[in-house]
Amino acid sequence: MITGQVAKWHRDPVIVQSVRSTAAATVAYIVALRLSPEHLPLTAPLTALLVVQVTLYSTLTTGIRRVNAVVAGVVVAIGFSVLVGLTWWSLALLILAALGVGQLVRVEEFVVEVAISAMLVLGVTQVGSTAWVRVLDTLIGAVVGMATNLLFAPPVWVGTAGESIEELARGMRQLMLRMGEEAAGRTEVERATARLYEARRLDHDIVGVDASLRQAEESLKLNPRVREGLLHRVVLRTGLDTLEICTVVLRVLARSFADLAKARDPGPLFRPGIGVVVEELLSQVADAVVSYAVLVTTHVSSNAESAEERLANELATAAATRDRLARLMLEEVQRDPGQWQLQGAVLTEVNRILDEMDTEHRSRRLLEELDRYTREQRERARWLTRLRDALGTARPARLRERFPLPRRGRNRPAP
């Protein structure tokens, strides 16, 4: 019980950030007391608090921006101290100049820090000594903050992102199951409209999952615990993109059901024979969505192969049910052509979801993303790419081995 609670705390970004920031700030203050001539070098722990982030990549980038901001502010203050003293109008010019310099040096969220450093340095009598003491304290805090994440590598948030993706898939599954149950019987317009609103709310869930995934992507960068960070990033990102497309199609499907309910009120959406098949099809598609999420979040090769095989079987089963539903709908339309556009739209939308989750489509998308990443890397660092090619560590080959293209899709419409 206690072990499980500790493990849960270890996965909580808020708790991890609080503990790491507190430890880094304390160590930075102790080091600054020994190295800095300042009596109370509070700039060092303040910098450590600002520098230490949940991921190693953000810690390094934040530390560089923080030091850059302080140095820029010190330089501006020294320049003003040579030209003018501290008056109300010189303070206004100092702040304006510091904020402008902060934008030029691209310190992002630390633009205000440039002005703060400039004001603190200009407000003392011994500008030179105070300026470099502030730079020293900032460097101490930044170095301690970076060392904290280098020596004690932060956790990889892939698991948290994976849980978010699976939770999104389960939410989609529950919605499709409810829509299927209502399609098998009489559906009131209000209930069909409520399902449409539920489908629209999935967009908010996508935003939360995307934020969790961005944190996971950052935690994979420059992390010594990770060997194939690119592979994890590409798999998770393409998986979320696919689920996002499926949520859009599901929203359109819910709209088609709502329109059918309005057109056929007070009767059922489909005649009894067709409604049962629609329920069966949506249930199978719902299971496939969850299996797709499990496949995306599975990193062990043997488990991934098993998950992919399960997904392929579920897609094949759903495709067979879709073909059976298409034949039944064709017979229904031939007898009664009313609302044939909406019934055809239901088939089209289900087919789009199946096509997005197709294993061949997934493999092709992964390879396209890898090729795009490789091209960008070649343009940014040509010398590093040549070195990697010379050492035989090119990533495309490894990923192509992990995700070979199937010979044909398994959920294509029957001829």
TrEMBL record:
Annotated keywords: Membrane, Transmembrane, Transmembrane helix
Protein location: Membrane
Integral membrane bound transporter domain location: 28-147
Residues annotated as transmembrane: 42-60, 67-98, 110-132, 139-158
Membrane topology field: Multi-pass membrane protein
KW Transmembrane (keyword) present: yes
Organism domain of life: Bacteria
Pfam families: FUSC_2
InterPro entries: Memb_transporter_dom (IPR049453)
GO annotations of cellular component type: membrane
UniProt keyword Heme, yes or no: no
Protein name: Aromatic acid exporter family member 1
Species: Streptomyces griseoaurantiacus
Taxonomic lineage: Bacteria, Bacillati, Actinomycetota, Actinomycetes, Kitasatosporales
